[in-house]
Amino acid sequence: MPTLSLPKSGKTKADILTSMRHARDKDAQWQNGKVFGLVYHISEEIDDLLKEAYTMFFSENGLNPTAFPSLSKFENEIIAMASNLLGGDDKVAGTMTSGGTESLLMAVKTARDYARAKRGITNPEIILPSTAHPALDKAGEYFNVRMIHIPVRDDFRADVEATRRAITPNTIMLVGSAPSYPHGVVDPIRELAALAQEHGLLFHTDACVGGFMLPFVRKLGYPVPDFDFNVPGVTSISADLHKYAYAAKPASLVLYRTSELRRHQMFVSTDWPGGIYPSAGMAGSRPGGPVAAAWALLNYLGEDGYLEITDIVMRTAKIFQDGINAIPGLKVLSNPEMSVFAIASDSMDVYELADELALRGWHLDRQIFPPSLHVTVNYVHAQAGAEFLTDLANAAERVSRPGLRKTATKFLVKAANLLTRVLPEETVSNLMNKASSLLGGGSGLPSRMAPMYGLIGSLPNRGDLKELVLDLLDNINTYKE
After folding, report:
1. CATH number assigned to the domain with residue range 54-297, chosen from the 4 options 1.10.1060.10, 3.40.630.30, 3.40.640.10, 3.30.420.40
2. Threshold 0.90, pTM exceeds
3. Where are the beta strands (DSSP E) in 154-296?
């Protein structure tokens, strides 16, 4: 890897900011509503508030609440408001985290340590739907907890009976999503939590996406299944502030039904020469900006503000879904409860569709099992509905036409399917070791993703796919001259 030296002499502020703006010009243009996910935006006015609150506490460190009691006050009030929103009482305790991944890591670590202390379990297992967020698998890998994936029903919601059959003496927790990220549907939380109670297990609701959306969707009169602390058996909930609470990144939280349960999340060192070292979550030093910005926005918008925003988002999502279902060959999967859903097709390659949309400036995540495109509608998309549906219809019409590239992609995928069936697994793995350079591994992701996503479904050994993705990730995160 090439090295890069510090500049011999410093550059001017103007030159630095100009270089940064030029670099940002290559980023996805979320400001016009062409990015679905990643960024949640309301208005410049809200951004100004977030920036001012964030920079007011730019230097403060949440590591030591005795030095900065203001941050402790803000965090405790955010947790109390979130608890109230999610059906909690005065016994609920929580922690702000750096994002949904850390929230889920903490929920798993807490369940592991609780089961170890209360039940003596040393080989813990957690049961979760195949649609649950992979941050839970990351937690399992980090904390040596075995993750048992159960299938979902035809509507992409967790299969309760399959969960029941998967429970063993080593099971410590069950998980459900509200909603699941891939398809935007809420798992049967009440039934799953009852199953957890029946077996004396913890239950976690992953509401990272819906925690600050579903309560307001329900207040507006839309049908929303029970998912929060109002459900007996739910012992913890994760909810992202930087998603539908529209707070500054990074900001999430994890809530526990009791402070006694939360104690198993915390770390304390009492034998260090530097003094007593406690930390509530993964991080030691914690930026004060996200805490302050989240507190400011929750108080600025209040319930009425969030209801107004949610009303606009849900109306926009309905326009999108009706428009998608009206385009020949396209459909929205299942019946999502809120503003997250997936576009699929029985007659066209949705990865080609995504490539065509990318050429028109739209960024949609590509999904597998089944092939689909992910859509997360938030407030910024209210201005983009008509343009998106027009571009989507045009892209679908183009993808439906015969073409040399489409024929070549289909041939490549069919050939890969054939080869993986007839060649020894070792030979296929050796071929895949060379595939990343053909798919853009030498310089990042390819400009067209359809061939790569088509190949993904052809690999019998998922370890080959993991190595391919690691190659791509390694190249993206490497300095190049």
Report:
1. 3.40.640.10
2. no
3. 171-177, 202-206, 236-240, 252-256, 267-269, 277-279
